[in-house]
Amino acid sequence: MSSWVQNHGTSEHSAGLETPLQAPNQRCWFILDPIGILCAMAAWALVLSGGWVLFRDLLIPSNNMLYIVANGVVFHLLASLALASHLRTMLTDPGSVPLGNPPGPDTVSYCTDCHSAIPRTACHCTVCQRCIRKNDHHCPWINNCIGEDNQKYFLLFTMYIGLTSTHVLLLLGIPVLCSYMRGEWDSSSTVSLPAPILFLLLVAIMGFLFAVVMLCSQMCVIYSDKTTTELLYQNTHSGGRWSKCANMKAVCGSHVSLAWLSPFHSPEHYKVSEHHDMA
Ligand SMILES: [Zn+2]
Ligand SMILES: [Zn+2]
């Protein structure tokens, strides 16, 4: 397993707290891990095939143009935002420590794989083969680490997957609920779902559960200014040094705006200590 990285070099660790970190979109980043690439393609295939089944077996048979167009637009909007967020999480440098990084004031140890002095929050990822700042975890479905520079996109990915799955579950569940309310069900009624609808239901349930678990865990790590590993294994429930709002701004951008919901907008990456003053 290896990574292909084009890094233009950074000196953020010696630049001091006043200097913004290098914008992550200035780098090209893609992890050449066959399992990760396969999982990431599977995630896209599930969303795209789910959308195809939704149209072919659920929306079009309704013969209601308003119903088809309205739900088609909602599904396409949410699914497109989810896939765009997935792509940006995968292709954004999560916060790699430069190879051969010299020791600085925040250096706590040395990585023999990267030959780099590493700061307090960084740890080495064996899949990416790099030390990543504030490394939360390596996600095979994203084929990348989740670190401080791509956490916003991962958060958006889980949110839009959750909303897309909820929309599909409502489309499947509301007609069943209506038929039950009309008294069309009795003790002898049986449920027989066609295979495509069963596939759509399972994909939607899987997406919904994934989104709920990941969204809740990410909100916890962001609010507490920790990583998932720190929350699980180290002095777990102590609060972060800064407010929840300041920690959220450090991930999503320094000003609360609609841009927080856009996977196309790159947040400004400042150290959280600066946001503390704004919170
Ligand atoms: Zn390393
Ligand atoms: Zn990794």
From TrEMBL:
Domain named Palmitoyltransferase DHHC: residues: 109-232
Transmembrane residue ranges: 30-53, 65-84, 153-177, 197-216
GO molecular function: protein-cysteine S-palmitoyltransferase activity
Record carries keyword Membrane: yes
Compartment list: Membrane
Keywords: Acyltransferase, Membrane, Transferase, Transmembrane, Transmembrane helix
GO cellular component: endoplasmic reticulum; Golgi apparatus; membrane
Record remark on domains: The DHHC domain is required for palmitoyltransferase activity.
Name listed for the protein in its UniProt record: Palmitoyltransferase
Organism: Mus musculus
Upper lineage: Eukaryota, Metazoa, Chordata, Craniata, Vertebrata
